[in-house]
């Protein structure tokens, strides 16, 4: 049985060593929400630039609600997982509805229960924003916290409920925001998946799993899927590509790019190569075929995914 986690030691370590991240200099709930949504699937180092651009252009929910979703997607370009940008825009619009229509009159709600009702906000994001920005005593559960918990308790495969219970039991209620960030920071910088630095860990004393840390939690077996697509890349006489906006579903929803499908009629087109694109659970292989069109579009004016940019780059080297 693990000993009691030392809250003081972890909080002192966090106060002394935490990374200087720009969203740690604000208590504005909207700006903290933007950071949490970005960091769901974008690394911290890359997320900083996107966050700075987003808070400059959209400093409030109202400023985003008044913009077109295409502008949000354009700023999000390259950060991946674009459904987050679409849901963020939907969230801003919902927050800006009048109270009588189920909105919040343009002001982000402050409790985790209310935040959870908004588009794209799950239990983790609701708890993170409510605790960090508004001081609610609510525990966060994310991958970092699960890993710290599994190692502290020496559990190979803790269930969600067990991790939630551990996080709630150990929560430092007087400052839940700093506490949640401290546990996540420990998971991100010390109790890392492959090479945990147990010698530098402020809560090693209570850790049952430290002698065999990488065995906890058991790595999840991710089955990668393969997707084969064809792409017709057409250029007009001035060298601009034909770009279409994709529909509201699928991995590249709402983004612009050359036409892609599982099957395309390639008569009169020339094969120029294959592009491979790796997502977290999926490998996409795209055969690219070159042709002509009447009227293209300037690719710098619309939101393109990294995959689309790779495809355009392939044509550049032909
Ligand atoms: S002692 Fe090691 S395994 Fe345990 S919480 Fe600290 S870094 Fe993780």
Secondary structure elements and pairings:
Elements: H1 7-17, H2 29-39, H3 44-57, H4 61-65, H5 69-76, H6 83-95, H7 112-115, H8 123-134, H9 143-153, H10 160-170, H11 176-189, E1 225-235, E2 244-245, E3 256-257, E4 259-261, E5 270-278, E6 282-292, H12 306-316
Parallel strand pairs: 1-6
Antiparallel strand pairs: 1-4, 2-3, 5-6
Helix pairs in contact: 1-11, 2-3, 2-8, 5-6, 8-11, 9-10, 9-11
Bound molecules: iron/sulfur cluster.
Task: Describe the overall structure.
- This protein has two domains: 7-215, Endonuclease III, domain 1 (Orthogonal Bundle); 225-316, Nucleoside Triphosphate Pyrophosphohydrolase (Alpha-Beta Complex).
- The chain has twelve helices and six strands.
- The chain has helices spanning 7-17, 29-39, 44-57, 61-65, 69-76, 83-95, 112-115, 123-134, 143-153, 160-170, 176-189, 306-316; strands at 225-235, 244-245, 256-257, 259-261, 270-278, 282-292.
- Strands 4-1-6-5 form a four-stranded mixed β-sheet, with helices on one face.
- The chain is globular, with a radius of gyration of 23 Å.
- The termini are far apart.
- The structure holds iron/sulfur cluster.
């Amino acid at each position: 049985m693990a000993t009691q986690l030392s809250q003081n030691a972890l909080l002192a370590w966090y106060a002394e060593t935490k990374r200087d991240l720009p969203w740690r200099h604000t208590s504005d709930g909207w700006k903290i929400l933007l950071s949490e949504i970005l960091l769901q699937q974008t690394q911290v180092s890359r997320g900083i630039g996107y966050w700075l651009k987003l808070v400059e252009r959209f400093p409030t929910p109202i400023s985003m609600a008044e913009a077109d979703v295409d502008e949000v997607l354009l700023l999000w370009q390259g950060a991946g997982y674009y459904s987050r940008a679409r849901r963020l825009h939907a969230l801003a619009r919902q927050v800006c509805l009048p109270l009588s229509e189920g909105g919040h009159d343009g002001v982000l709600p402050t409790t985790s229960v209310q935040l959870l009702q908004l588009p794209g906000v799950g239990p983790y994001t609701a708890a993170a924003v409510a605790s960090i920005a508004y001081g609610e005593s609510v525990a966060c559960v994310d991958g970092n916290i699960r890993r710290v918990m599994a190692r502290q308790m020496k559990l190979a495969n803790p269930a969600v409920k067990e991790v939630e219970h551990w996080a709630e039991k150990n929560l430092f209620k007087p400052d839940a925001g700093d506490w949640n960030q401290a546990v996540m920071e420990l998971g991100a910088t010390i109790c890392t998946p492959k090479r945990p630095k147990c010698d530098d860990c402020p809560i090693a004393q209570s850790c049952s799993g430290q002698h065999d840390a990488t065995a906890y939690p058991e790595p999840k077996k991710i089955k990668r899927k393969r997707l084969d697509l064809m792409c017709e890349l057409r250029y007009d006489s001035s060298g601009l590509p034909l770009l279409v906006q994709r529909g509201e579903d699928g991995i590249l929803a709402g983004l612009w790019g050359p036409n892609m499908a599982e099957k395309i009629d390639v008569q009169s087109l020339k094969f120029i190569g294959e592009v491979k694109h790796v997502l977290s659970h999926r490998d996409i292989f795209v055969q690219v075929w070159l042709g002509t069109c009447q009227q293209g579009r300037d690719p710098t004016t619309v939101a393109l995914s990294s995959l689309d940019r790779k495809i355009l780059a392939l044509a550049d080297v032909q």
